[in-house]
Amino acid sequence: MDWLLQNTHPSVDWNYALITLFLRFFGVFFILVVIQIALQLSSRSVRYIEGRKLRKASSERAGEVVSPSDKAGADGLDSATIAVIAMALALESQRSGGKASNSNRSVAWSIAGRMNQVRFR
Amino acid sequence: MSWEAIGEIVYRMLITQTGLTHLWWGQVLMWAVGIFFIYLGAAKHKEPLLLVPIGFGIFIVNFPLTPFMGTTDAGFPEFFRVFFHYGVEWEVIPVVIFLGLGTLTDFEPLIANPKALAIGAGAQLGVFITFIGTLLFGFTLQEAAATGIIGGADGPTTVYLTSALAPHLLGINAVAAYSYMALVPIIQPPVIRALTNKKERLIKMDDLRPVSRQEKILFPLIAVGVIALLIPAVAPLMGMFMFGNFMRECGAVKRLVETAGGALMNIVTIFLGLSIGATMEANSFFTTAKPLVVLSLGVVDFVFCTAGGIWTAKLINLISPKNKINPIIGAAGVSAVPMSARVSQVEGLKYDPNNHLLMHAMGPNLAGVIGTAAAAGMFIGMFR
Questions:
Q1: Which residues of chain A have a Cβ shorter than 8 Å from any chain B Cβ?
Q2: Complex ipTM over 0.90
Q3: Contact (CB<8Å) A8/B375
Q4: Which of A113, B177, B315, B370 is deepest in the core (most CB within 10 A)?
């Protein structure tokens, strides 16, 4: 150990080196902890703001008055148009009779759905 | 003209215009070192993007009379010296590389788990221990600081700090940093096994929460603000890192992101590797024992940095036993991204095939980059 200490560069002040090193190691912790706190605060703020926006949007949706245009389907068609389309599709389905292939089953299923929609309205 | 005269001309040509008579064993040894790095990079795919150009730089600069790192008769720098001077000594290339790295980095695992930042700080333990170690071998304070940062496992930061404090050690420090980074999968697993028990290795961590785009955009601004305020010495390095990340997250400048993280980074990487390799001339390498000390203490540095991360993870578990951290991810606190995170994943899977630690380990891994830059900033502030 003595040999090692004698081997050190003459400009090295061990007291200074050790104390400042100790302080700076904890300095690194300090800086990263400051970033951590800043990060947590910003995350909370962002989540709070986003949460508030979501709550506001959902409460607006819940409190909406149903207007005549809203009674129309999601695609903007009114119920009479939907009924006409559904009727046309049903007639087309009847015209093709039992020849409907497996691939047409999904079409039939969607027609039934649309007719139900019209009935409920 | 007589045969003697012709012989004299040929002899003079051999002496003055070829390297044959100037070759010495040190240069041949450096060829072997260069070829070893090329082999590691090209054949074994260990950090190939840097080890291949570094290896080739070492190889080619160690041929006698080659005009690479000196000055011309007119006093201008020779080929590699131009890149070394303007790129490395002027501290430009490491900063540009950090810009590119910022565009390639996703901070989501760190934002989702800010506790990882403490692990990144703890993993700087080796940096400070090696600093003391190198002082015992006759290094000056500046040289010791530049050597200590190797354990942070961050190449550009090592180059940045060394060129600021001890430019004469640049070659060996960069080579040690990049070669030990390539050896992370060999160095870290025994340390992980020695410092953790089976129960700790089996800890399953909760899934990371999803992070919103706003948080990702805010993070680089917050991080650079804190760092520029507290350690202005590394503001260029971290500023560009966070700028690159901000460009990535804001999504408005995709072309700039592609260039910074692609072509620009590749170009500067080529010249960084070649010019750093070119600093490893046999004449300067074999005249002092310092390169050997750097290479020896570099391993010790990596071991203590890995240990520091693991101990910090354990300490966090002691302080807050709720939502325990698997201490294996502490090893990822050294900033060899994503190599050390992959090591944590592989080690975790060895003990529980369903315990996927990769995303958890990315947090300390990214924190390690910031921690190493913070340590470098401390050293620059201390000794410049």
A1: 4-5, 7-9, 11-12, 14, 17-18, 20-21, 24-25, 27-36, 38-40, 42-43, 46-47, 49-50
A2: no
A3: no
A4: B177
